[in-house]
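Q: What structure does this chain adopt?
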Amino acid sequence: MFSAANVFDTPKPERLIERIIYIATNPGDLVLDSFLGSGTTAAVAHKMGRRYIGIEMGEHAYTHCKVRLDKVIAGEDQGGITKSQNWQGGGGYRFYELAPTLINMDAFGEAIINPDYDADALAAAVALHEGFTYQPSADLFWKQAVGNENSFLFTTTRHLTSAYLESIKGSMEEGEYLVIACRSYDKGLDRAYETIAVKKIPQMLLDRCEFGRDDYSLNIVHPPVYEDEEVAHDE
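A:
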């Protein structure tokens, strides 16, 4: 009888995956496994000098894939094709998690910001969607994200008032351009200054992110990277 406990009792043989990868790829090629399972494809690709991307939704991404790849990198995996490939360990990989949906729909059908996002996470997500690099300035709070040396993005969950906008404008230098993404703003502020664009967060993102789904999202959050950190992308 099938059960979650024995789902990986009979993993794919590494030699079979080795043969497939050998026939279909060259060293340095990118191997994709969209259902990573116990991590066999990633482990074999790593030992064979291929780059790889593995995708997995289950907890076994941590309990199986991460553990397996850590052993491969540490040279502690003595099974499979380790000896035939003369694998001694080395390399690394990056792990990316899919974040919760950024925009939800409320009971009235209105787009709202997901409360799971704190201020920093929201600012980073909006910067990613808008093509800016999240890089908060130590000197000016509104320089949260950089587009180029003269354009910036500021994301805030507060209501934007005329006085608040005027104070930001007063600290801008000639030639600088600013996009402000906010929850709401006073009427007419989106046309107050030629060098400042004011937009509501939900409206600016509706066409670019999923909403109303709790099971998956295309909003990618890239957490800090550690040498032995979790699954999915080889360096």
